[in-house]
Write a structure and sequence with these properties.
Blueprint (H helix, E strand, L loop, with lengths): L2 E7 L3 H12 L3 E8 L6 H15 L5 E2 L15 H4 L22 H11 L4 E5 L4 H9 L3 H4 L2 E5 L15 H5 L1 H9 L4 E4 L1 H4 L4 E2 H10 L3 H16 L7 E2 L5 H7 L4 E10 L9 E4 L7 H4 L3 E8 L1 H13 L2
Parallel strand pairs: 1-2, 1-4, 2-3, 4-5, 5-6, 6-11
Antiparallel strand pairs: 7-8, 9-10, 9-11
Helix pairs in contact: 1-11, 4-5, 5-8, 10-11, 10-14
Bound molecules: beta-D-ribofuranose and calcium ion.
């Protein structure tokens, strides 16, 4: 079965790995890339997305989206994780043959959803401002899309920016609250699963061997990313968070999901926390009124890794 997706992204090294994985997957039809600030400023995210498309030989729309959080001032970026260029400082030449679509990311999402009602899964692998804005532009959006798959949050495990918050949700918590509360089917791939699958240097070598162009790019860019993730660890590894929601579309049997009522905290101390109350664990009206989402709680790391390496080797 083929899945039409719009990939909302802030490239970013694991974003690049996820984008190429989506392009390589025969089951995934990427209608466009919508970009958002997050790992890098939005201008850089948009240019990086064009560069990845050109490298992969993909001529699909790429849009620039929101550059600021829903509430509050411009955020700090994650250059210490992804490098000054978002690609691990590898000095990769920017796209020369690709231009941005003139529409905003949110407008593109709305236009595509109207054009393909009920068919598109929004896959968000950065902060959620574009999706929140699309909901404001088209309040019927939840009826027009098939579902929303998010890399973000930490349901039953600690955060990676604060003790309780994961980066994508923390970066735009007010937008995340809007997205989690909307009347659509949200599936969340948070640190509960993404931090359980460390990827070794051998994995990066295999990606490069299997796919010189895209795998080679990920291999080279990820060396900086590995340096970040290997601090205070015995093994040199990194975590490809962003590919998981796409892997789930390709093969749902890789994951175990739980349902639960979801809340995103916006108070200063807990900002960006995703709290999940499984059904029948509370009688509190505040919690019972919160929408239920699907939360990935387990992943088969061996089969997931095999899926990535096999997919990168497809021509
Ligand atoms: C998320 O934050 C970003 O650094 C990654 O690209 C990923 O989307 C992980 O917390
Ligand atoms: Ca990302």
């Amino acid at each position: 079965m083929s899945h039409k997706i719009i990939l909302d992204t802030d490239p970013g090294i694991d974003d690049a790995m996820a984008i190429f994985f989506a392009f390589q997957s025969p089951e995934i039809d990427v209608l466009g890339l919508t970009t958002v600030y997050g790992n890098v400023p939005v201008e850089m995210a948009a240019q990086n997305a064009l560069t990845l498309c050109e490298l992969a030989g993909q001529d699909i729309p790429v849009c620039k989206g929101v550059g600021m959080p829903w509430v509050g001032k411009e955020s700090g970026y994650a250059h210490f994780v992804h490098g000054d260029d978002g690609f691990g400082n590898i000095n990769f030449p920017p796209a020369t043959n690709r231009k941005l679509d003139p529409r905003s990311s949110a407008q593109f999402i709305v236009d595509m959803a109207r054009q393909h009602p009920g068919e598109i899964t929004l896959v968000a692998i950065g902060p959620l401002g574009n999706l929140a804005l699309a909901l404001r532009l088209e309040p019927e959006l939840p009826k027009l899309v098939k579902g929303v798959s998010i890399m973000g949050g930490a349901a039953f495990v600690p955060g990676n920016v604060t003790p309780v918050a994961e980066a994508n949700i923390w970066n735009d918590a007010f937008a995340a609250e809007i997205v989690f509360a909307a009347d659509w089917e949200v599936t969340m791939f948070g640190l509960d699963v993404t931090m359980t699958v460390p990827f070794s240097l051998e994995f990066l070598d295999t990606l490069k061997r299997n796919n010189q162009k895209c795998g080679g790019f990920v291999h080279d860019a990820a060396q900086f990313y590995v340096d970040f993730y290997s601090q205070n660890r015995e093994q040199r590894v990194c975590f490809f968070h962003d590919a998981m929601p796409i892997a789930h579309l390709v093969d749902p049997s890789l994951f175990e999901l739980k349902r639960g009522h979801a809340r995103v905290s916006t108070d200063p101390l807990n900002i960006g926390q995703t709290s999940i109350a499984p059904p029948n664990t509370t009688t509190s009206a505040d919690w019972l009124n919160a929408r239920q989402v699907n939360v990935a709680v387990k992943v088969d790391s061996k089969r997931l890794t095999q899926l990535y390496t096999d997919t990168y080797s497809l021509s």
